[in-house]
Every structure is written in structure tokens, then in C-alpha cells.
Write a structure and sequence with these properties.
Elements lengths: L2 H10 L10 E6 L2 E7 L4 E6 L8 H14 L3 E6 H6 L1 H18 L2
Parallel strand pairs: 3-4
Antiparallel strand pairs: 1-2, 2-3
Length: 105
């Protein structure tokens, strides 16, 4: 795990995020997502330096489109944002979950 993944995992593990269970490095279809909540079909991806190479953006879009076609919803953050703005990232994740819960009612 990268430093950003370790940082975020400290707040997602043990049902700390609004009581939801997250897995890390979860296989879905032929891909692996950084964090995944099965109950919400919700993935969180952290894009580090490996996502900056030529063609990575298109590959990420294809991957995300495939997983979204299976019903998985996504939030994607940069490694730098997770490290520098952890509180804001956590609020964004919580808001996303709350919005999903509101929409499903």
C-alpha cells in the first residue's frame, strides 16, 4: 500500500466510516480496486504516480466504465489530495455515502 492508501485505510477500516465495512485491494471482475464497500457497491481509488504515464487515463476510464456497468459507484482521489487534505477527503466520502443512502430511500 502507498502512504496515501495507508492514511485513508486508517479511517475506513473497522467500520469507522458511518458504520460501513470496507475492504482494501478488493478484486472485482478482472480488476482490483483500492477500497470497496460491498453493501454500497462503492469503490474508492487513489491515483498515484503510476496513473500519470501516457495512456493511463484512458485505461483508468475503461476500467471504471466496466466496473460501473456492473453497478459499482466510484470516488477517485489523487494521492497528493489524500495526504494533504485528509479531512476534506473523509468529508467527501461521508457525503457520498449519505447521498447514496438518501437516493436509495
Amino acid at each position: 500500500m502507498t502512504f496515501a492508501e495507508i492514511t485513508l485505510w486508517q479511517f475506513l477500516k473497522s467500520k469507522q466510516m458511518l458504520g460501513y465495512d470496507f475492504d482494501r485491494q478488493r478484486p472485482i471482475d478482472e480488476y482490483i480496486v483500492d477500497f470497496y464497500c460491498k453493501d454500497l457497491m462503492f469503490a474508492i481509488e487513489i491515483d498515484g504516480a503510476s496513473h500519470n504515464w501516457r495512456g493511463a487515463g484512458e485505461k483508468d476510464r475503461q476500467r471504471q466504465n466496466r466496473l460501473e456497468s456492473l453497478g459499482v459507484r466510484f470516488l477517485r482521489f489523487t494521492e497528493q489530495d489524500v495526504i494533504q487534505q485528509t479531512d476534506a477527503i473523509l468529508r467527501r466520502i461521508a457525503c457520498f455515502i449519505e447521498d447514496e443512502l438518501t437516493q436509495s430511500r
